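Input (Potassium-transporting ATPase ATP-binding subunit):
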Amino acid sequence: MAARKHSFFDREIMTQAAFDSIKKLNPRSMAKNPVMFVTEVAAVITTTVGLILSAGSEPLAFTLQVTLWLWFTVLFANFAEALAEGRGKAQAGALRKTRTQTVANRLRSDGSMEKTPADELRKEDLVLVSAGEIIPADGEIIQGVATVDESAITGESAPVIREAGGDRSAVTGGTRVLSDWIKVRVTADPGESFLDRMIGLVEGASRRKTPNEIALTILLSALTVIFLVAIMTFKLFGMYSNVIFSVTVLVALLVCLIPTTIGGLLSAIGIAGIDRLVQKNVLAMSGRAVEAAGDVDVLLLDKTGTITLGDRQATEFLPAEGVRVEELADAAQLASLTDETPEGRSIVILAKKYGLRGRSITEMPHAEFISFSAKTRMSGVDLEARKIRKGAAEAMRDFISSPFPPEVESAVKTVSQKGGTPLVVADSKRVLGVVHLKDIVKGGLKDRFERFRAMGIKTVMITGDNQLTAAAIAKEAGVDDFLAEARPEDKLALIRKEQASGRLVAMTGDGTNDAPALAQADVGVAMNTGTQAAKEAGNMVDLDSNPTKLIEIVEIGKQMLMTRGALTTFSVANDVAKYFAIIPAMLVNAFPVIGPLNLMRLGSPASAILSAVIFNALIIIALIPLALRGVRFRPLDASVLLRRNLLIYGLGGLAAPFVGIKLIDLLVNALHLV
Ligand SMILES: Nc1ncnc2c1ncn2[C@@H]1O[C@H](COP(=O)(O)OP(=O)(O)OP(=O)(O)O)[C@@H](O)[C@H]1O
Ligand SMILES: [K+]
Ligand SMILES: [Mg+2]
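Output:
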């Protein structure tokens, strides 16, 4: 995306965030965050009751400073949220600029063409887009092949191929056709386009609290109520023992004790998580999906294209006994003439090496081509009585309804054991031989899967390919498990089975036949190049269409959950420590017996309270970078991580206030602030 280079801490974003944090003081927007709302009410009380009405016995300088720092506390929390939103807003601005007004060539039902403004196009309209033109709306190519510049959406300048029929048929409004022409069926009404949704997503307009965030907010609210009650009993206790606590002191104490640190940073953490995905070119349709990614137990990966390069190439023809290799090559080519898959194209090319000239389908008016589908696992052509087919061994065995000759059977086996895909070719009932399709396992996968294992996540490869090939590739790639000979419905069934045993499942896919599984998975990552159906079914879209991105997605999700956990731990530990820091200081004059509890020896009760309030505000600012960037991620088992984090952030949260408040108190006293 155009504005990708921004950091959270760019001057422009910081300035905008500073303004926004004032705008966010609006009680209506504060009410979404109960802890900070209470803090704002506290600031209003000290401002009105303490300052304007000068109620209470405190010196004005003290009330004034406490009031100021309470307002800062609220502003700092707002600033954290505004900063988290900043990068997305900048990106949304850049995206809006690409939403230029274009004129579309709409096809009327009689086949003639008319010029129509793009924003008048509706679902099901047909448009023609030629080289140099902007695609006026989201749609599905129904005719033609073209190269498309999608840099407006993906930030990636290399052109991509989009074509009718296959798994690369979806086009996005706002992108540009570079060569050739396409006929597109519009799939989105104005205002509901991918670009519109993307703008809404990156600027956080459609962000809703996730179930976990709601649960945490409820917990934090409960803590707030408990402390509110505690402070009121404190007041009663003061009245009973003739110590007078002013409104300012009680309010200051309350704010120090309620979980303002996590309360102030919670939404920033969530927004930053989604934003980190956007930086990786992944659009998460909901915060819930990001959270689920962090908790995933099982990853389902396609073999072809995900684990392997996916550009399966025919490398060899292995004829059956009594069949010349030219004859096999000829039949394989015939069966592949209209097969636009990489496999099909490579067969046509390899066949040419056997002296076969390139055939044209126009020479064969009576030919009826049967295209490949993941369900039938074969493709071919009917030439009057001849039925030429090529396909997976299992499917072909069913097709000829008899066993293969032994040498064909063993060729299938040899190819498979090498991790190749054997395609059996037959002319009606006669088996001609085997085509060896070679695919290459992507580099660096073993390490990545090792990372998953370290996190306790199981990786499962699913493939339509046969058992032997699947086993060979699974071993080479280092996945934990595999499912071979899988049809689309088997993928769906596998996901349901894993979910039924309480596991969260993630998967990637691009094809229309992946759509049900993408919808069923807890995290369904659709490839941007994929079909419209796949993109609508998943809850994330990868603009780079890189299936191994799932690994980064899981890491970002985990990092987001860990950051939230770490800062919650820190916040609560912090508040407990503050209790011991301030209360003894406040009471030690009236009750000298508690002297030994007064560990910190702060200057005076007034300086103790002011220092605690200042610390409480500054800790939010200090933790903003951690909240936005996330805690450092290591691929460790969940329970190990939990223990580590409890140790670091729990102990850190306990120690920080003692050190921080003591230092601030020294400064407050040195400068005679109270
Ligand atoms: N163009 C084709 N023509 C005929 N048969 C094919 C063609 N492409 C693949 N096949 C056969 O059909 C099988 C199933 O294909 P499918 O696309 O479902 O799975 P896959 O590509 O092998 O694996 P994955 O599920 O990882 O994509 C393949 O293993 C292969 O044997
Ligand atoms: K607090
Ligand atoms: Mg496939």
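The mean pLDDT is 88.
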